[in-house]
Amino acid sequence: MKDMTKGNPARLIILFAIPLICGTIFQQLYNLGDGKIVSMYLNKNAFAAVGMTAVISNTLIGLTNGFTQGFGILVSNCFGAKDMSRLRRCVAGSLFLTVLSILVLTAGSLAVIRPVLSLLDTPDDVMQYALIYVRIIIGGIGFTTLYNLSANLLRAIGDSRTPLYFLILSVILNLGTDLLFIGKFHMGIAGAAYATVLSQIVCFLACLIFILIRYRYILPRREDWAGLWKEIPGLFSTGLSMGLMGCIVNIGTIILQSGINSLGSDIMAAHVAGRRIFDLTCILIYTFGIAMTTYTSQNTGAGQIDRVRRGVKDALLIVTGISAILVGVVFLISRPIISWLATTNDATIVDNGVMYCRIGVCFYFFLGPLFVLRCTLQGLGHKVAPLYSSILELVLKILSVLYLVPRLNYLGVALTEPISWVLMMIMLAILYLCYIPKDAARLQKPV
């Protein structure tokens, strides 16, 4: 547990972000290992299926995780204000809304998954693998959501280390069962999916047990359940805002994936490999955005807007420095890593994957500030403003599939996100500069 309303902002943000970085790196290393195991024991169509269905499962996970992150903002706000009674009511409301969302999304997603894959122009040689894999992942998405809720509640009260430990356990278990189910039991792509679900079940149960032992005081009491309805409107609106933002971003990615699918299975494999490197390197700047959500929420609850301003400046300097390092690293290692991931030296796959990585990393100087500003606005309680940038990204991806990809092929795909990052960062910077004086006046306490 860490109170982020006192102490040096840069130090607090870095210390909070380090476990997030480590945890997300472990998650991405799992994705790398999972992809390698699938490509090694199965074939490139199975490898492409795992990668392309990830945008669908990530949309659902992004929606539910956005919900739970939104709940965490209010919990963090209560923690900063030292209002423990309301904090427990918010936890009660969070549990109720999380279970409800799991039931609705699981049933609805299983009903429409085949038409969605067809709309994405999934090639026939990939479709059979994609259906098997994604249906199992959707069936177990409830455990992923419950773990995310537990982790986000811990982060809301300043504990970013504990979710890391359980995530490491999950990754090790996942890779081990991947090798067992695919390599030993020959379960095919279904084995990869079952391994993922099993690891999430273990991760959630471990996190739940820890909360019951260490942080029982944040759990609702009988009177808190009776009063949860007072918090439901605020929790729902904040959670919905965060969830929709993640969902809109991933819907744009799904639409972009349809353009990628139209370019053939080799380009699909190239994109999966390139995306793995993007996901791994992006962690180092994305996690500082997550840290800013908790930092800003706690300080907003404490009415310390000047600390929010200082934290934003420090975070912007940090992500800019990290971006400069990543440019050199990606240009150096992208080619051998992509060849290893896809288990091939095929020029079409490797060259296109390298192009995607190298173009993208040059625009991290815009992506880092984008994460910091968007998460700061969320922490300040602005539910709609961050959605604007996500809607802009969705529109740009639709335009790319309609006009850019048909003319430039995979180069059009590689340029789409960097263009959106530049425009989104400019939009968020304007919104931040417009809102922060109003927030200062709103939070100023009378003498």
What does this structure look like?
The chain is mainly α and 447 residues long. 86% of the residues lie in helices and 0% in strands. The chain has helices at residues 9-41, 44-80, 84-119, 124-139, 141-156, 162-184, 189-214, 222-226, 232-261, 265-301, 305-342, 347-361, 364-379, 385-408, 410-443. Helix 1 (9-41) packs antiparallel against helix 2 and helix 10 packs across helix 13. It is globular.
| Helix proportion range | over 70%
Strand content: under 5%
Termini separation: 30 Å
With helices defined by DSSP (H or I, 4 residues minimum), what is the helix count?
A: 15
Gross morphology: globular
User: Average pLDDT across residues?
Assistant: 88
Q: What are the segments in which pLDDT stays under 50 over at least 5 consecutive residues?
A: none
Tell how many strands the DSSP assignment holds.
0
**What is the C-alpha radius of gyration, as a whole number of Å?**
21 Å
Biggest sheet: strands, sense, closure?
Answer: none
Q: What would you call the structural class?
A: mainly alpha
The helix/strand order is HHHHHHHHHHHHHHH
